[in-house]
Amino acid sequence: MPAGPDICPLLEEAVLYDSSAIESKKRIRILDVSVDRVSLAEAAEIFEALLRTEACSLIVTPNSEILWNAAKDAGLKAILNDADLVIPDGIGLVYASRVIGSPLAERVTGIDFLDAALRRLAETGESIYLLGSAPGVAEKAAQHMRARYPALRVAGVRHGYYKPEEEAAIVEEINESGAVFLCAALGSPKQERFIHTHREALRVRAAIGVGGSLDVWAGVQKRAPAFFRDHGLEWLYRLARQPARIKRVLVLPLFMLRVFAGNRR
Ligand code: UDP
Fold this sequence. Notes:
The chain has a single domain, classed as 3-Layer(aba) Sandwich (Rossmann fold), CATH 3.40.50. The chain has 13 helices and 9 strands. It has helices at about 40-50, 65-70, 75-80, 90-100, 110-125, 135-150, 165-175, 190-195, 215-220, 225-230, 235-240, 245-250, 250-265, and strands spanning about 15, 25-30, 35, 55-60, 85, 125-130, 155-160, 180-185, 205-210. The longest helix has 15 residues, at about 110-125. It is globular, with a radius of gyration of 18 Å. The protein starts with 13 loop residues before the first strand and ends with a helix. Residues about 1-20 have low confidence and may be disordered. Uridine-5'-diphosphate binds next to helix 9.
């Protein structure tokens, strides 16, 4: 990929042309992972285009923790770089994009993107399959999704605590459900690996990894109030509610240090 003279090694900008309906999208690179510089509206448009393609498109929603893990896990990094849509889900990515001189338009949370996707599916009558979270959570999430979008068709649900040998049967169940969109809320990297491993076998048009989003839809976890979201402090709110997340939150400054270090090279 050609890089301009004033572009640091961490940043490569490219306009990707896809043979499908996806005309073009701008990508930046943060810690060697391509991230789409998209607004929520643009991401929703790309989603619509991906649903018109035959193969199973992979949508990922990395935050700084996921990019940090990818820097240490070549397999995860390869999966992220193989995704069709990489949504910048985290204030850390927005800060990093400023450091490397190519600011992201905005932070697009996986949960907001999922909401936009549900609205679109409710309009077209296409269906979604919900995989992940503890037993009972996906059912409850489906109930709340249908309350918000009465026309939404949830083709199937399944919890995310299964044995590896059950994966093939789960893929079969998703295929038989007729869903066009798979929402995998298994936590990272389990969700990305599941989709990537079974990409060829899955007959859905697109699949996304969305972390704890079903917990929020089900009401098991509360979403941070608008003040925290608007000020990039969602992580602080979640930390206050779940102090055990401290180790995960500490990754954010480490991630930023790595971005700064890379930018000075
Ligand atoms: N989870 C799952 N199967 C597993 C491990 C985790 O379904 O084997 C679910 C877990 O119940 C939770 C989600 O994956 O609903 C991960 O949530 P987390 O808060 O870690 O995700 P984040 O939103 O921080 O990315």
